[in-house]
Amino acid sequence: MQNKVILITGASSGFGQATAQLLSEKGLIVYGTSRDPSQKGKDYDYTLLPLDVRSDESVNNCFEELMQNEKRIDVLINNAGYELAGSIEETSLVEAKDVFETNLYGTIRMVKAVLPIMRKQGSGAIVNVSSLAGIVPVPFMGIYSASKFAVEGYTEALRHEVKPFGIRVSLIEAGFSRTNIATNRQYAAAPISDYDLFRQRAFESYEIYEEKGLKPSELGEGILKVISRKSPRLRNRIGKEAVFISRGRRFAPETIFEKVGRKYFKLDG
Predict the structure, then answer these.
(1) Residue 181 — very low, low, confident or very high, per pLDDT cuts 50/70/90?
(2) pLDDT-derived band of residue 39, with 50, 70 and 90 as boundaries?
(3) Which of 81, 206, 214, 239 shows the greatest Cβ crowding within 10 Å of its Cβ?
(4) Residues 124-141, buried b or exposed e (16+ Cβ, 10 A)?
(5) How far is it, in rounded angstroms, from Cα 251 to Cα 238?
(6) For residues 76 and 110, is the Cβ–Cβ distance under 8 A?
C-alpha cells in the first residue's frame, strides 16, 4: 500500500480530513481537496488542492495538477457532499438540484475524469462515500436520501462496467456521525407550518443519534480496510447502526420496518 497515490474530495474537515490524515500516516501519498483555496495554507500532513466538484473546469484542473506531480492515481475517494434538511414539499427544485449537483453529479464528474487514467494504468480503486440515508430514506432529509440512493445505483453499475480494466469500485455506508456535516447541514428556505411538529421531532432524533454517532477516525479506518483489500465488497457498512438497520431493511416485513422507522425518528411522538 505504501507509495500509493490517493485523492480524497472534501478533505479540509470532518470525515475527509480524518481519513486523509490516517492514510497519510500509513505512508500513502495523499492529496485532499477543498472548495476554499485559503485552506491550502493550513498545516495538513497531506497536500490540499482547490476543487469544486460542481465545476468541470475545476475538476479538470485538479487532475491536471495531480498528474503533473505524481504521474498516476491509485485511489479516488469521493467524499465531498452536504445534507439538506426539510420536508420534500418544503424543498424547492433549486435546492434539490443543488444537492444533486454536489452529491451525485460531483461524484460523476470525478469518476469521468479519473477513469481514462485508471484504464490506461490497468488498475485503480474508486470509493464512493454514501450514507445510511442511501440504504433507508431519512424523513425530513428526503432529497439528501434521494441523492445517496442515486449514488448507490450509479456505483453498482459502475462496478460492473470497469471491472474488466482492473478498477475496483466500492461504497462506504456510514450511519450518523459526530462531525461538522451536521453543523454545516442546510435547511429548506421556505418551511411549511403544517410540518413543524413532525419536523422538529425528526430533528431532535438526529441530534440524539449524532451525539452517539461515528467518530471521524472510525470512517477513516473503514476506508483504509476497503482500499487495502484486493477484492473489496461493493457495500461496506461502517458502524453497528448501519449494519443493524440495513439488515432490518433486508429481512423485516415492509409494514414492520416502516413502523420501526417512524419510531426510530420519533415521528409519532
Answers:
(1) low
(2) low
(3) 81
(4) bbbbbbbbbbbbbebbbb
(5) 19
(6) yes
Q: Cell for 240? A: 453497528
- Give, in order, the Cα–Cα distances in Å from 81 to each of 37, 66, 92, 166, 237: 17, 21, 19, 27, 18
The average pLDDT across 64-77 equals 98
DSSP bridge pairs for 169: 126
| Residues belonging to the chain | 269
Using pLDDT thresholds of 50, 70 and 90, give the confidence band for residue 26: very high
3-class SS of residue 135: coil
**How many Å apart are CA 44 and CA 196, to the nearest integer?**
42
Cα-based angle 54, 112, 50 (whole degrees, multiple of 5): 40
Q: What is the pLDDT of residue 182?
A: 63
Q: Other C-beta atoms within 10 Å of 50: how many?
A: 16
CB atoms inside a 10 Å sphere around CB 43:
4
Q: Which residues are catalytic?
A: 12, 130, 144, 148
Helix (H, G, I), strand (E, B) or coil at 230: coil
- Beta bridge pairs of residue 50: 34
Residues 6+ apart with CB under 8 A from 45: 21, 24, 25, 30
Catalogue all structural domains in the chain, each as residue range(s) with its CATH number.
5-264 (3.40.50.720)
Q: What is the pLDDT of residue 215?
A: 86
Residue 32 parent element (H or E): strand 29-34
Rg of the chain on CA atoms, in Å: 19
Model confidence, pTM:
0.94
Each residue's pLDDT tens digit, 190-246: 999 999 999 999 999 998 988 888 888 888 999 999 999 999 999 999 987 788 888
How many CB atoms are closer than 10 A to CB 253? 8
